[in-house]
Amino acid sequence: MESSRVSLISGLLVAALLVPAAAWADTDTLVYLQKEEIAYVGELSAAANKQVIEVYERADPKPKWLAIRSGGGEIGVGMALGEWIADHNLGVRVLEYCLSSCANYVFTAAHKRVVSNFAVIGYHGGANSATFANELPPSASSEERLASSDALDAYIAKVAPREHLFFDKLGINPRIVLLGQFPEVEKVMGVDSRSDVACWTYSLTGFHLLGIDNIEVVNGPWVPKLLSGKEISIQLGDAVVKENLRTPLPTRVHTAEIATGH
After folding, report:
1. Helix 75-87 vs helix 142-170: crossing angle, to nearest 10
2. Tens of pLDDT along 178-234?
3. 77-99 per-position pLDDT tens digit
């Protein structure tokens, strides 16, 4: 039973914190020095973050850029990498995609940013989202559902305040990771009603309104899509962003209520 419970909790955390796997094709995470920048390719992880620090400390001269392609990872790991990037004044380059925790905490933390004209910077919620999907198998017992939900609640109670402090320190509107989930925005933009949309993004003006500047687009205009040509993000309109800059942050629903349907 204990092994099953751990497996369920682990699966829940992954499901809650990553963009749907069909959105990208990450393999094992790779970290290496490429000329004078650090390359980070794959899911965010504590082990990969440690490699980034080691590569940086060994390098001479010190790299000024982190080039990343990632579908995301655990919230705490993402914030740890973002905090390190901010502390070391690194820029972030994105050629293909930076999704979920990568967009939330790595792209936002950069001193400056360079994106290709097709790069996807995709958001789909954060530590202060109103709900988290408790995607457990149908065979899961009520005890297992409640145990995994309680574990997630405890986890979110730990990382949610840290997220507030993270964005406050950077001077970024915390709604950047939440706007697409606001009922009034979803109604206008249809973020959750299209099966081909895994996340939302912003225009350069939208990013500016939320506190993010210093974005250079190589060979613009910027039209986010995967290399396959598939568009997985929906761009929230500038007017929608402006109208919701001060919308009250959501009150989270207890995960157990979602899991049990009560």
Report:
1. 10
2. 999 888 787 766 555 555 678 999 999 999 999 999 999 999 999 999 888 888 889
3. 999 999 999 999 999 999 999 99
Q: Are 122 and 232 in contact (CB under 8 A)?
A: yes
Residues 163, 108: contact at Cβ < 8 Å?
Answer: no
Three-state secondary structure string covering the chain: CHHHHHHHHHHHHHHHHECCHHHCCCCCCEEEEECCEEEEECCECHHHHHHHHHHHHHCCCCCCEEEEEECEECHHHHHHHHHHHHHCCCEEEECCEEECHHHHHHHCCCCCEEEECCCEEEECCCCCCCCCCCCCCCCCCHHHHHHHHHHHHHHHHHHHHHHHHHHHHHCCCHHHHCHHHCHHHHHHHCCCCCCCCCEEEECHHHHHHCCCCCEEEECCCCCCCCCCCCCCEEEECHHHHHHCCCCCCCCCCCHHHHHHCC
CA distance 233 to 228: 14
Q: Based on the structure, what is the number of domains in the chain?
A: 1
CA gap 67, 144 in Å, rounded: 40
pLDDT at 191: 54
pLDDT by residue (tens digit) across 100-123? 999 999 999 999 999 999 999 999
Which range of 119-133, 135-149, 173-187, 207-221 scores highest in mean pLDDT? It is 207-221
Range of the domain at 120: 2-260
Do 17 and 74 meet the contact criterion of CB atoms below 8 Å apart?
A: yes
